[in-house]
Write a structure and sequence with these properties.
171 residues, 18% helix, 2 helices, two-stranded antiparallel sheet, six-stranded antiparallel beta barrel, alpha+beta, Lipocalin
């Protein structure tokens, strides 16, 4: 009985005092601005997106800091839409703006910076032809021509950077 008590007491002290030090040693400080490459998984257009939506991407490569992997390739990354507009009449193209991306870790959300503005092509000929149409009124119907949708194609690659320094567990 005395051996069992001694063994349990020893196990308690080892797990209480030694285990947290081992776990702390596996954390890596990831500096602000660390570069990460992500790839969009599917096609998105300004017609179907709205501000606040997230689009799915994934890590292309492992994120390695000081020889330790902190994020594995293939992990999901979410790109946050700040602004999205569908194509408009009078030949104006759509627009999508993305400024943040994030990954959910074990206990934290890691935020990244990204400044991307995707614009659909304007159809510049619509307005001049419509002005001429004031004299030739049937040509006013040209005003109903829309510009091109802003599009983020599947497999598009983006470079994003950590917004802050993070202590992340090594995997």
């Amino acid at each position: 009985m005395k051996k069992l008590f001694t063994t349990l007491l020893l196990a308690f002290f080892v797990t209480t005092f030694y285990a947290p030090q081992v776990m702390a040693a596996t954390e890596v400080k990831v500096p602000r601005g660390t570069r990460v490459i992500v790839q969009v998984k599917q096609n998105y257009t300004g017609k179907k997106l709205k501000a606040g939506d997230d689009i799915m991407a994934e890590l292309v490569n492992d994120v390695v800091v000081n020889g330790k992997t902190v994020l594995a390739a293939g992990e999901n990354v979410y790109l946050m839409i700040d602004e999205a507009e569908a194509a408009h009449c009078w030949g104006r193209g759509g627009q999508i703006t993305i400024s943040k991306a994030y990954i959910y870790g074990q206990n934290e959300r890691y935020v990244f910076s990204l400044n991307e503005n995707v614009s659909g092509k304007d159809k510049a000929w619509v307005v001049p032809v419509s002005c001429v149409g004031l004299f030739l009124w049937p040509l006013l119907l040209v005003g109903f021509v829309k510009g091109k949708q802003a599009e983020i194609p599947a497999n598009k690659i983006y470079e994003i950077r950590f917004d802050n320094a993070y202590n992340m567990p090594a995997i």
